């Protein structure tokens, strides 16, 4: 079926433009921009039409923790949040470290999720940092990258060998820059606030130390490397030097570290306990500026569902992480409304850059690109009710917060997976 979106505010991250126009799709791909209207007409009423979000680092509870999140619940949450592609993490139980486990994940995703799903695989067996996985077999089975997530590989020789092998295969390594010895058992970022609250803390320098180590190994091996979740201004100079030196390096930031700071923890509110912990306001602004300048390439949700039992604990004992598939877009609108970033630049970090980094189609509004689209109103205000989220787990720091930006419709391969009949 042919569909034309008219009177749409087209957000083109590659051209860096936003302008009123039309978009025509057919058989799951874009066939024309500002061309003659054809087929079913959807009047967008001047609302924003952009490439669907490509979200990196989504945690799914299958296998092992399906009570926290399933492919179906995460897929519904993604569609409601304008996310058309999820790139999921391998930190499941058991880890995604064999072709058989990866095949199970792919099968479950295709059966249950209404959006595109691609999986990363573990870098070492069991994410234990001792023996690397069979990368070649996992690549053949569909793995798009390799990572041990927050289980940092501390043995430099093991990490270097894995990087060298990945380089020979053309595989992407995802790192979690952090010195694990310094950050062990830490709940917040060190400083006056942490001292006043009496909470175990970690210095922001732990992130810089971890990144410097990783970048040295990248320089030695020549591997393609992505730092998954930078959060401090201290890490940015090292990243900029690596890019200036021509290393194949990119970096991402969590939406929570762009919109919240360490003071939001308040009176030990565990829904604000994240990994890495929330940083200072200066760090938050530095991260937003880095995205605007292109130093930070990707914004992700780092969607991490946790059940009530693991969050309703003393702050030090509570699990880290927050759900964010449905709150990613409205939270990102805070950056736009604050004048820190414009919509095309934001969508470059949310859609175009992650698609390109992982070698996936999408992120573009050009002829021949997939018809993975999100229609949204960037200005509609609402108060978030966590119990209305599609995720099984409801651990969002934005519960009760006033937000702006509502998804009106989501299309994957030209098929509408969220929203009513009318735009």
From TrEMBL:
Keyword line: Pyrimidine biosynthesis
Record's keyword annotation contains Protein biosynthesis: no
Superkingdom assignment: Bacteria
SUPFAM superfamilies assigned to the protein according to its UniProt record, in alphabetical order: Composite domain of metallo-dependent hydrolases, Metallo-dependent hydrolases
Pfam families recorded: DHOase
Domain Dihydroorotase catalytic: 46-232
Protein name, per record: Dihydroorotase
Native source organism of the sequence: Aliiroseovarius zhejiangensis
Gene for this chain: pyrC
């Amino acid at each position: 079926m042919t569909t034309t979106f008219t009177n749409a505010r087209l957000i083109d991250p590659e051209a860096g433009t936003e302008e009123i126009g039309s978009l025509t799709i057919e058989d799951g791909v874009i066939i024309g921009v500002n061309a003659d209207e054809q087929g079913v007409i959807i009047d967008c009423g001047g609302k924003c039409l952009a490439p669907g979000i490509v979200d990196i680092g989504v945690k799914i509870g299958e296998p092992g923790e399906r009570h926290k999140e399933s492919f179906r619940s995460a897929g519904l949450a993604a569609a409601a949040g304008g996310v058309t592609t999820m790139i999921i993490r391998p930190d499941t139980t058991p880890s995604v470290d064999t072709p058989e486990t990866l095949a199970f994940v792919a099968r479950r995703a295709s059966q249950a999720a209404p959006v595109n799903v691609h999986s990363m695989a573990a870098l070492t067996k069991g994410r234990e940092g001792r023996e690397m996985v069979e990368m070649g077999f996992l690549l053949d089975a569909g793995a798009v990258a390799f990572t041990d997530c927050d289980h940092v590989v501390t043995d430099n020789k093991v990490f270097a060998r894995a990087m060298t092998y990945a380089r020979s295969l053309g595989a992407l390594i995802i790192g979690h820059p952090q010195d694990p010895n310094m950050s062990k058992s830490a709940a917040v970022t060190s400083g006056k606030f942490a001292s006043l609250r009496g909470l175990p803390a970690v210095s922001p320098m732990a992130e810089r130390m971890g990144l410097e180590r990783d970048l040295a190994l990248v320089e030695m091996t020549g591997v393609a490397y992505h730092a998954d979740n930078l959060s401090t201004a201290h890490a940015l100079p090292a990243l900029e030097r690596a890019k200036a030196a021509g290393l194949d390096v990119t970096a991402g930031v969590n939406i929570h570290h762009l919109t919240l700071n360490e003071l939001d923890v308040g009176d030990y509110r565990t829904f604000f306990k994240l990994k890495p912990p929330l940083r200072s306001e200066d760090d938050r602004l530095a991260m937003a500026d880095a995205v605007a300048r292109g130093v930070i390439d990707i914004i992700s949700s780092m969607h991490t569902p946790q059940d009530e039992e693991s969050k309703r604990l003393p702050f030090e004992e509570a699990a880290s992480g927050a759900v964010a598939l449905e709150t990613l877009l409205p939270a990102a609108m805070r950056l736009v409304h604050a004048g820190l970033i414009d919509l095309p630049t934001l969508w470059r970090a949310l859609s175009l850059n992650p698609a390109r980094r992982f070698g996936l189609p999408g992120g573009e509004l050009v002829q021949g690109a997939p018809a993975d689209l999100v229609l949204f109103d960037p200005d509609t205000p609402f108060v978030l009710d966590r119990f209305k989220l599609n995720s099984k787990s409801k651990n969002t720091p934005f519960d009760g917060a006033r937000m702006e930006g509502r998804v009106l419709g989501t299309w994957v391969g030209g098929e509408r997976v969220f929203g009513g009949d009318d735009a």
